[in-house]
Amino acid sequence: MDLPATDPKPSGMPAAVGAYLIWGFIPLYLILVKAVPAFEFVGWRIIWTVPICLTIVAIRRQGPEVRAALKDCRVMLTLTASSLLIGTNWLVYIWAVQAGYVLATSLGYFINPLLNVLLGTLVLREKLNRRQWVAVAIAAAGVSLLLGGALTTLWISLMLALSFGFYGLLRKQVAVGALPGLTIESAILIVPAAAIAYFYSTTPAGSSFGQDLWMSLAIMFGGVVTAVPLLLFAIAARRMDYSTIGFIQFIAPTIVFLLGIFVFKEQLMPAQLACFVLIWIALAIFVWDLLARRNQQAKLAV
Could you tell me the pTM of the whole model? Predict the structure, then answer.
């Protein structure tokens, strides 16, 4: 429901932080479903996202918004493109974590905020001040250190960064609410998802779903960990500058980075440690700038 014109614009910051915290800890959830092939799990993940979205749509009485979006050709074309991007992102991410390339996924989501800043300035014409550009330069220097030592898995990092970066850009520009948009995206993907699930049910090993109660429940939970953070992200993308979202996103890859080292026991190289330090310096500068500008605006308001 739209807020009255006299109300202040709601902040997207809590939604953004919540989304990236959930995404940061998703590798721990993927440990539970590691026995499920990546393609099959993506299929089930989509299948179980749809009923969750439809239930929330019914509770919030947003059916008319969904129907309006379905009648708009431009909206449907945009959501089709965004659904393909997020589906690709899920597949690459799940496969990489299952294959033990957790740090490569972390690098992808370290690159993604820089891409968000670039897209925000070039496509959306958002403006960065001098402190923000300094933060971008420091973060880019940190990522470049990792690029030199991760050539064999660089495709994973770039696929994740590009697919999610352009997904967020499309969702920011499309004229549809967060939940109706996610519901339609999931519905678009459900046909190939059902085909994937059916294919695995015909293999000698059979479907991973339905054979074991706890595994089946863990697979169903994939709908929750898919729908909730994506809904939060879509809310944040519509309320915040895309460049600002880019820097908040460093929360998720930092968590994944630490999980890769301390939980998945991947080897930490000196270049990776240097990248970690530089990126957090950049984040500190960006947050300092946000707080300084907010304080300045508060003083002007008084």
Answer: 0.82
- Going by C-alpha positions, the residue among 84, 10, 23 that lies closest to residue 248 is 23
Instruction: Write down the pLDDT at residue 7.
Output: 47
Q: Is residue 5 situated within a structural domain?
A: no
Q: Is the pLDDT of residue 287 over 70?
A: yes
**Measured between alpha carbons, how far is 211 from 49 in angstroms, rounded to an integer?**
20
Q: Closest Cα partner for 181 from 231, 223, 224?
A: 231
Residue 74 lies in a domain: yes
- Distance of CA 124 to CAs 33, 120, 138, 209, Å? 39, 5, 23, 43
pLDDT at res. 248: 81
The first and second tokens of residue 243, run together, are: 């460049």
- What's the DSSP call for residue 97? H
Whether the per-residue pLDDT at 9 is higher than 80: the answer is: no
In 3D, which of 226, 240, 241, 232 has the Cα closest to residue 179? 232
User: Nearest Cα to 189, choosing from 66, 64, 86?
Assistant: 86
Residue 272, domain member (yes or no): yes
Which two tokens mark 227? Answer: 């729908």
Domains identified in the chain, total number: 1
The DSSP 8-state label assigned to residue 250 in this structure reads: T
Q: What's the average model confidence in pLDDT over 197-223?
A: 93
Residues 105-157 have pLDDT tens digits of: 988 888 887 787 778 888 888 788 888 889 888 988 887 887 766 667 888 98
d(CA 37, CA 206): 11
Instruction: Examine residue 7 and state whether it is found in any structural domain, yes or no.
Output: no
Q: Which two tokens stand for residue 168?
A: 């967020």
In angstroms, the CA 14 to CA 191 distance is: 33
For 20, the domain range is 13-301
